[in-house]
Amino acid sequence: MSGTKKEGFSLIELLIVVAIILIIAAIAMPNFMRARMAANESSAAASVRDIKTGEMLYYNAYPDIGYAKQLSDLGGTEPCVASTTSACVVSDPLSNAAPGSSGKSGYVFNAIGSPGNGGTINDTFVIGSAPVNPNVTGTRLFCTTNDNAMRADPGPGSTPVTTVSACINYAPL
User: Fold this and answer.
1) Which of 125, 129, 163, 121 is CA-nearest to residue 147?
2) Which residue has the higher pLDDT, 112 or 9?
3) What's the order of all strands across the beta sheet hosting 141-145?
4) What pLDDT, on a 0 to 100 scale, did the predictor assign at position 63?
5) Which helix (H) or strand (E) holds 108?
6) Under 8 Å between Cβ of 146 and 83
7) What's the burial of 158, exposed, middle or buried (CB within 10 Å: 0-12/13-18/19+)?
8) Taking the complete model, does pTM exceed 0.90, yes or no?
9) Residue 34: pLDDT over 80
10) Does residue 6 carry a pLDDT above 90?
C-alpha cells in the first residue's frame, strides 16, 4: 500500500499560527503606545524649553518690546529675516504648532508675552503645551513662565495654559 502524503499546512495549523501572532501583537501594542506617548511627552517638554530659550533671545534682541507677544513671532519661514514678528529664534514647525494646527510630535504649544503692572513692555510670558489627542498622543500638560521653572499637570487636557497663574498651579518637574 502506498500512502499519499500531502505537503503543506492544513487550515487549522495556519489559523493557530495567525492566532498566536495576534495574541503577541495584542500584548505588545499597549507597550508600544505607552512608549510612543512617553516619547511625545519628552519631545513636548524639550520644545517648551526651546520656546523658553527663544523668548529669552527675543527679549535680548527687542528690549523695547520685551517677550514675544505670541508663539509665531518667535519663528519665521526659511530663508528667515529677523524682525519683531518673525524673530527666527524657534524652528518654523514649532512656531506654527499652535492650537488648531496638527502640532508637533502629538502636542500643540502656546506662548504669550504680556506687560505686567500696566506697563508697555512685555515683561512676563507663559509657554504651555497640551496633547493634540489626550490619552492617545500624550497625557501630561507642560508649561513654564519667566521664573524658568518647568511644570507639568497630569491632564488630561487639550488646551495649553495661557496665564502665568494657571501655569504656577502645575507641579514643578
Assistant:
1) 125
2) 112
3) 107-114, 124-131, 141-145, 151-153, 171-172
4) 94
5) strand 107-114
6) no
7) middle
8) no
9) yes
10) no
Beta bridge partners of 23: none
- Peptide bond before residue 79 is cis, with ω within 30 degrees of 0: yes
* Distance, C-alpha 55 to centroid of its chain: 17
How far is it, in rounded angstroms, from Cα 154 to Cα 134?
A: 11
> Which of 115, 110, 95, 116 lies closest to 143 in space, CA to CA?
110
pLDDT at site 3? 60
Burial code of 2-35, b = ≥16 C-beta within 10 A, e = fewer?
eeeeeeeeeeeeeeeeeeeeeeeeeeeeeeeeee
Long-range Cβ contacts of 96-100 (<8 Å, 24+ apart): 96/72, 97/47, 97/71, 98/71, 98/72, 99/130, 99/159, 99/160
Say if CB 84 and CB 114 are below 8 A apart. no
Cell of 80: 528667515
CA 122, CA 29: separation in Å to the nearest integer?
46
- pLDDT for the residue numbered 103: 93
Q: Exposed, middle or buried: residue 81 (CB in 10 Å: 0-12, 13-18, 19+)?
A: exposed
How would residue 1 be classed by pLDDT, with cut points 50, 70 and 90? Answer: low
43 or 120, which is more confident? 43
3-class DSSP state of 3? coil
